[in-house]
Amino acid sequence: MAMRRARMTIAYKGDQFHGFATNPGVDTVASTIEGALAQILQEEVKITPAGRTDAGVHAWGQIIGADLPDRVNLPVLMKQLNSLCGPSIAVREAVWTKPDFHARYTALWRSYRYTVLNTETPNPFMVDSAWHIMKPLKLRAMQLASDAVIGEHDFSAFCRKPKPADEHDTFEHSLRRHVMNAEWRDLGEGVLRFDIRANAFCHQMVRALVGTFIEIGLGKRPPSDMRGLIVSGDRAQAAPVAPPQGLILWEVGYPADCD
Q: In 10 A of CB 39, how many CB atoms?
């Protein structure tokens, strides 16, 4: 049977799953999609993501690749997947792509967003999508600290050490990443948003950065600490990770010839 590689853009609510990657005995994003594909196509299909998000982390622009029978009608398949996987998972786009396309390794960059609700009282409608911080944050200090993150650095101070199984992957093991943009914005009504774009992210990097930014915003650290932490490479000196519900894998960028 002739096969073709498909590329899909998917969104999901991460709090409904135990992370993206397949994990026996629990519901994950990958196992849900693969299960639906197997039900529709009557054969096993494996998917490859641009990034493996942790439990509780959401996505708007996650990209997955999969080899499918060329008889598949992608618009129809999208509707079938959304019917079986929704409402917590939605396939936003599905297109045929080049045979050598790889959702992870072909990607040029990824961008994440983290939302903080900085108000005295909680918002029940943002419980699953933001970190509620009651004490006032100094946004200017957080903005100044974010400048230190931009550029190519070893982010060991903000990354969980790779598991032994990953150490064969030199890129994963180095923890060196190139951050293209990092910026805090005030969206009004107490909503603060952090946007960051990089060639790739190591495990828990964004949440560790946000946790440290919050300590700076609360006045527990000066903005200059961020550069010192990067130089130190010591994870123990940085803040604990921010909770997962505020984080969204927003977008993944690829070369123009992949469109």
A: 11
The answer to whether 223 and 216 have CB atoms below 8 angstroms apart is: yes
> Could you tell me which residues are beta bridge partners of residue 181?
197
pLDDT of residue 174: 84
**According to CATH, what is the number of the domain 3-105?**
3.30.70.580
**Contacts of residue 211, Cβ cutoff 8 Å, sequence gap at least 6:** 238, 239, 240, 241, 242
The answer to whether 79 and 91 have CB atoms below 8 angstroms apart is no
User: Max alpha carbon distance in the chain (Å)?
Assistant: 62
Is 100 one of the catalytic residues?
Answer: no
- Cα separation, 19 vs 249, in Å, equals 12
pTM above 0.90, yes or no: yes
Query: What does the alpha-carbon distance between residue 123 and residue 102 come to, in Å, rounded to a whole number?
Result: 39
What pLDDT was estimated at residue 163? 66
Q: Where are the domains of the chain?
A: 3-105, 109-253
Q: What is the C-alpha separation between 118 and 36, in angstroms, rounded?
A: 39
CATH 3.30.70.660 fits 109-253, yes or no: yes
- Ordered alpha helix ranges (H), 121-224: 139-147, 170-174, 205-217
| 3-105 and 109-253, same CATH topology | yes
The structure tokens listed for 123 are: 């918002």
Show the low-confidence residues of the chain (pLDDT under 50): 167-172
Q: Give the model's pLDDT for residue 170.
A: 45
Residues 195, 183 contacting (CB under 8 angstroms): yes
Distance between CA atoms of 45 and 27, rounded to whole angstroms? 17
Q: Which of 54, 70, 128, 259 is catalytic?
A: 54
Q: Which residues contact 160 (CB under 8 A, 6 or more apart)?
A: 202, 203, 204, 235
